Amino acid sequence: MKKIFETERLLVRELQEEDWLKVFEMNTSIEVMRQIGEGKIKTAEEEQSSFKSILANYQKGTGLGVWAVVRKGDNTFIGAASMAPLADTNEIQLGYRLKKQYWKQGYGTEIAKGLVDYGFNYLNLDKVTATTNLDNDASRRVLQKAGLSFEKKDVYNNWPMNYFVIHKKKE
Questions:
Q1: Taking the domains of the chain in order of start, what are their residue ranges?
Q2: Which of 3, 66, 90, 114 could form a disulfide with 82 if both were Cys (CB 3.0 to 4.6 A apart)?
């Protein structure tokens, strides 16, 4: 298991084969997926193919990917975090999703702040971006608490989104 980063309460690490059912459960929750792009639920076969692709991507060593988010105290899988290219751009966007029972506990903000730090200090990015569905006020608040600012509405992957950005402070 490779650690990506940790926060006060959370460990972000590479996904492992034994995480499959937890990821599948989260990604087939209508409430969770409602705010991810078009909100479509993939078939079990599509999810398994995606999961295998995520695991294979670790071998590339890019520092980008999708990772497990677990609580430090009890090693409970609560969600996923990611750093990935933003569609049709040269930018890197942060992403996260949580199982519903872990919403409204500050975990999203903790993950987003950790991802910003990871982007600036490990990936050496000058800026980190994020997108949300237009009506996703909860994620808008999370991103703003993590220091990102709303910049514009645009279309990514043929879907209208809010675009947020944070720039690395010059020393």
A1: 3-167
A2: 66
Task: Give 3-167's CATH code, choosing from 1.25.40.10, 1.10.10.10, 1.10.1520.10, 3.40.630.30.
Answer: 3.40.630.30
Q: Any alpha helices (H) in the chain, and if so which ranges?
A: 20-27, 30-33, 44-57, 107-121, 137-145
CA-CA-CA-CA torsion sign (162, 106, 70, 6)? positive
3-61 pLDDT, tens digit per residue, is 999 999 999 999 999 999 999 998 888 887 777 766 678 888 988 999 999 999 999 99
Instruction: Look at residues 153, 92, 163, 147 and name the one whose alpha carbon lies nearest to residue 124.
Output: 92
Look at strands 77-85 and 92-98 and give their pairing. antiparallel
Strands (E), the chain: 3-6, 10-14, 65-71, 77-85, 92-98, 127-133, 149-156, 159-167
DSSP state of 106: S
